[in-house]
Every structure is written in C-alpha cells, then in structure tokens.
Structure to design on (259 residues):
C-alpha cells in the first residue's frame, strides 16, 4: 500500500478518535506525522506541540517533533525522549543521527553502541556503527562492527556480510572484487525494502561506486521520503555532495537546516 493510500486512512482513524476525545495524544501525533510526511512542516510542528502540552512525558511525540526541528533543537528533544524511554531503539538511533549531523562523531558513537545493545539482530545497526567508526578513522573497528550483530534473517545476514567485505576492502584492496560481487548479488534481488536499499547504498559508497549509490538512494527515498530529510547535514553523503544528481535529490527531499 502506498503512502497516498495509507495517509487518508490514518487521518480518518485519527479523526474518529479525536471526535470521541479531543485530547487523544496518539491521534494528534498520527495527524502531525501525516502532515510531516506530506511536507506540511508548520502544521506538523503545531500538532506535536499540542500533543506535548497535553502529555510532556510522551517520548514518541518528542521523537517525532524532533524530526521537524533544526538540528540543535532536534538534539535537545531527542535527548529528552531517550531519557524518558532509555530502552527505545528509535531514540538511540535518532540520537546517533543527530550527533552525526552535528559533526559530533564521538558522542554519536555512544548512542550507536547503545543501539547495538537494543537491536543486536538487525543489519542496519551494524551499518550505523561501522559508518560512525569510519568517520572516526577507526577502520578496523568499522569492519568488526559487523561481527557484533547476530542477524536473524537471510537478507540481514547477506547485508552484514557484504558490509563487512566492503569495509575490509578499504584495508585490503585485493578484496574489492569479492566485495563488489557480494553487493551485486544483493542488488539483483527483487523487492528490497527501503531500509535494505539504504544499507546496500552504503556498501556501494564504501566501494566508491557513486552511480549505483545514487540510484539506490533514490529508490530508498521514493517510498519513504520522511526518512530522507537530512541530506545537507548527514555525513553518510560526504562523498556525494558535489554531484549534481545528489543535489537534485537533496532539493527534492531535504528539509534539514544546517547549523
């Protein structure tokens, strides 16, 4: 089901809930999230602020609110959410992302490690940690990041293996062809979900294939545009920023505010 099909249903259900209880925080958050997805940032912010006036301890509202704020304000809200719910993996993931986008890579590492403890079975966790180590010029630790997870699905195992090989090839160039073959095998798989496409995009970036990385980035963003709003600040894209194709994608998706 596409976003265009889902959002009217979300709005209808939220409207029913609010008719029964105008202060239903979950419904207010759902409407604000729909507004954010549709690019109506001002309306989304107003919705999240209303939810937080009703329930200041709502970690989900704070996490979602942070997504429509400038970086430093987003970090403050995400920190509050992580304090309210220390076991919330999304809070740790977003905290790591906020620190990375602010260039605070060492601070991001603590959040990436916390995320690993909370979600040790997901390939994306290793990709986040590996990139964090690479930004700190700890290339061997970036390779080792993929040994720290226990992926439970065949796809996650394949992604983790490809990610590890890609980072190993940075230290051992003779492995480049093997790493490329692993990436290409994944690329041939039909119907990869947006997160898997994004992880695979990172593999190609590490391998230096910007053309393939840009193609996968677009494919991962098209069905999930709300996850592609930090192009101007996310260090994942450092090697792409001078490319006109990346700049076109950034213009299409990016609502981040550099600081």
């Amino acid at each position: 089901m596409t976003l265009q099909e889902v959002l009217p249903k979300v709005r209808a259900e939220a409207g029913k809930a609010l008719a029964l209880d105008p202060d239903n925080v979950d419904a207010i958050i759902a409407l604000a999230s729909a507004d954010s997805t549709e690019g109506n940032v001002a309306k989304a912010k107003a919705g999240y602020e209303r939810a937080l006036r009703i329930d200041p301890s709502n970690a989900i509202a704070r996490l979602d609110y942070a997504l429509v704020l400038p970086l430093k304000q987003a970090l403050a809200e995400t920190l509050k959410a992580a304090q309210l719910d220390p076991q919330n993996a999304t809070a740790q993931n977003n905290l790591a992302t906020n620190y990375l986008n602010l260039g605070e890579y060492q601070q991001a590492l603590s959040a990436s490690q916390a995320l690993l403890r909370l979600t040790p079975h997901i390939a994306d966790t290793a990709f986040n940690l590996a990139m964090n180590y690479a930004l700190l010029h700890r290339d061997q630790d970036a390779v080792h990041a993929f040994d720290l997870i226990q992926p439970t699905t065949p796809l996650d195992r394949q992604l983790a293996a490809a990610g590890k090989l890609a980072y190993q090839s940075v230290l051992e160039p003779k492995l480049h062809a093997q790493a490329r073959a692993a990436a290409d095998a994944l690329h041939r798989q039909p119907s990869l979900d947006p997160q898997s496409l994004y992880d695979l995009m990172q593999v190609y970036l590490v391998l230096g294939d910007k053309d393939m990385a840009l193609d996968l980035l677009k494919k991962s963003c098209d069905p999930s545009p709300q996850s592609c709003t930090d192009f101007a600040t996310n260090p994942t894209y450092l090697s792409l920023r001078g490319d006109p194709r990346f700049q076109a994608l950034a213009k299409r998706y990016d609502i981040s505010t550099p600081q």
Residues 1-56 form a domain with the Serine Threonine Protein Phosphatase 5, Tetratricopeptide repeat fold (CATH 1.25.40.10). The radius of gyration is 19 Å. The chain has a mean pLDDT of 94. The chain has 14 helices and no strands.
